[in-house]
Design brief:
- The complex is a heterodimer of chains A (312) and B (236).
- Chain A starts with 17 loop residues before the first helix and ends in a 6-residue tail after the last helix.
- Chain A is built from eleven helices and four strands.
- Chain A is α+β, with helices and mostly antiparallel strands and 312 residues long.
- With 236 residues, chain B is α/β, with parallel strands linked by helices.
- Helix content of chain B is 34%, strand content 25%.
- In chain B, the strands form two sheets. A six-stranded mixed beta sheet of chain B has the order 6-7-8-3-9-10, with helices on both faces. A four-stranded antiparallel beta sheet of chain B has the order 2-1-4-5.
- Chain B starts with a strand and ends with a helix.
- In chain B, 44% of the residues are buried.
- The chains are: A alpha+beta (312), B alpha/beta (236).
- The interface between A and B is medium-sized, with 28 and 36 residues.
Chain lengths: 312, 236
């Protein structure tokens, strides 16, 4: 049937059967320009890997912070030479405050036993000492919701001032600091990754530009037979998106491999130092965000190069 | 169907390809365009396809003033024109079928119909057995016929061919002209450029001769006619 163009009628810019053509062409072009595509994909993968490392560290620190906050604990270290009267006075003070109800007295002997079990390789050193160096202490589990109230802080100040009390340690102060550190790590990761992702997008833009140069005769033919700019540019845009997606997926694979390798080599030897960093891998939402970041960088790169090339 | 009104094309101060060219080709006509090399034939065809713009004058094709036509309408306009280029302009990395299928993709023809339509178009030029061949593996004459099949696949309103019989033997030339004559019978307006005077004479068709960018001789030269004037002010 003869097709007549009517100026008033708006024809669809992208025919419905062209999407599969875009994808086929994009994959074929990536395959044809394997080396340049590899450079672009690697750039995206490395950028996202760096973002991923920051996200993973922040994620596991966040997990640890949540866990520690969930069981907020006050430790009251008594002086090693505290008298029984002083100890009773402290115990009475703690008993009078409902927020200190969940307390456990750790004797000097129990502290020594714990140290020996946790740090078995150091137990010999402790054995050489004349006397037990560990002071008695109270371990008090407190409700995290109360732990930052003024009344609670006033009680802690009063406790610190009591005779026989050497030190009062409570962990939410450094938990607050830890959360700030997590925020800084997240921001640093996003900034560093963002800069690298932009660099990667420009690499993709150059790769697409090169491909367009390679196909310039073909593009001219396409224009002469009535292809719209969208049909001509579509495969190039999809090419960038595919490169970005492959880069994103590759970064996840690399991140997981790095995580597993580090966990196996570091975690068992010094679990107390590193263990919290290997609590788990990224949640699926962040994995999806990394892949989406790759797609976005790829799309942006290809968009940069196709938008500037129209018919003169 | 194709109307040129005092068209001049100047590339620079010293090079003018067409001077004040006026002619009209009606719907359903079959016209030859001839003249020596450098006379401006290819420039004229480029103007019709709006590969280039006229420096002066107006061109109306299928009721649309090309000077006023929006850039976004250009692809849709070109889809009504079947063009056979002198250098064929086939995509070398694509098979014969893929070269034809691409046009059908552009025209939003469902993929399942591509094979049938491509086969039919290639049958017209007697090349249906070369569906899976690549253009560089075909002879010049075969590439020419693939280019013609590509131009015919959409039953275009206007069929234009730049030297389609150049470098072909007389028998093959007549065969090619016959293909265009059949397209003309199906309703396409045909404009062919050729150097072959004998071919023009034997066909008995109307002929426009260009010399140094001017119309030197035109059998049944048409003057400006009122019924085509409205096209000048039509939508682009």
């Amino acid at each position: 049937m003869r097709r007549e163009f009517l100026p008033g009628r708006k024809e669809p810019e992208v025919p419905s059967n062209t999407f599969s053509y875009f994808v086929r062409e994009a994959i074929r072009r990536i395959w044809v320009s394997k080396r340049t595509s590899f450079v672009a994909i690697s750039m995206i993968a490395i950028s996202l890997l760096i973002v991923g490392v920051f996200l993973l560290v922040a994620e596991n620190l966040g997990r640890a912070a949540r866990e520690w906050q969930g069981k907020s604990r006050v430790i009251v270290y008594l002086e090693t030479d505290a008298t029984p009267q002083q100890q009773q006075a402290i115990d009475r003070f703690l008993a009078s405050k409902p927020q200190f109800a969940k307390r456990h007295l750790v004797s000097r002997e129990e502290a020594l036993t714990r140290f020996r079990s946790w740090f078995a390789h150091l137990s010999e050193v402790v054995g050489q000492l004349d006397e037990n160096p560990f002071p008695p202490s109270y371990e008090i589990d407190v409700d995290p919701r109360q732990s930052q109230s003024r009344l609670f802080l006033a009680d802690i100040t009063a406790l610190k001032a009591m005779s026989g009390v050497d030190q009062v340690q409570y962990d939410w102060e450094w938990l607050v600091r830890l959360r700030r550190v997590i925020q800084v790590i997240n921001i640093a990761g996003l900034v560093a990754g963002g800069i690298l992702a932009i660099a990667a997008a420009f690499t993709i833009a150059n790769v697409i530009r090169l491909t367009m140069m390679l196909y310039r005769e073909e593009i001219e033919i396409m224009r002469l037979v009535g292809a719209t700019e969208r049909i001509i540019r579509g495969p190039f845009l999809i090419e960038g998106i595919v490169q970005g997606t492959i880069g994103g997926l590759l970064s996840i694979v690399l991140l997981y491999a790095t995580y597993e390798a580090a966990r196996r080599s570091l975690a068992p030897s010094s679990s107390l130092l590193w263990g919290f960093l290997f609590a788990g891998f990224l949640p699926w939402q962040k994995i999806a965000a990394l892949v989406a970041g790759g797609m976005l960088a790829g799309w942006f790169g290809s968009w940069l190069s196709v938008r500037e090339r129209g018919e003169e | 169907m194709i109307h040129f009104y005092h068209v001049t094309k100047r590339f620079d101060r010293y090079s003018t390809a067409l001077h004040d060219v006026t002619f009209h080709i009606d719907k359903g006509e079959f016209v030859f365009l001839t003249g020596p090399s450098g006379a401006g034939k290819s420039t004229l065809l480029k103007l019709i396809l709006r590969q280039i713009n006229a420096t002066e004058g107006q061109i109306v094709v299928n009721g649309r003033n090309l000077n006023a036509m929006k850039k976004s309408h250009l692809p849709y306009f070109r889809r009504e024109i079947g063009m056979v280029f002198q250098d064929f302009k086939l995509i070398e990395r694509m098979t014969v079928f893929e070269n034809l299928s691409f046009i059908l993709t552009v025209l939003n023809v469902p993929p399942k119909e591509h094979k049938k339509k491509a086969y039919q178009a290639l049958r017209t030029v007697n090349l249906h057995h070369k569906l899976n061949a690549y253009p560089p593996h075909l002879s010049g004459g075969e590439q020419q016929r693939v280019a013609i099949a590509r131009a015919l696949i959409n039953d275009p309103l206007v069929l234009i061919a730049d030297e389609p019989t150049g470098n072909l033997d007389p028998d093959l030339s007549h065969e090619i002209v016959q293909i265009f004559a059949e397209a003309n019978l199906r309703g396409s307006t045909v404009l062919l450029t050729t150097h072959d005077r004998e071919l023009i004479r034997s066909s008995g068709r109307r002929c426009i001769t260009l010399e140094h960018g001017r119309i030197a001789d035109e059998k049944a030269r048409t003057l400006e006619r009122p019924h085509v004037r409205e096209g000048l002010f039509g939508l682009g």
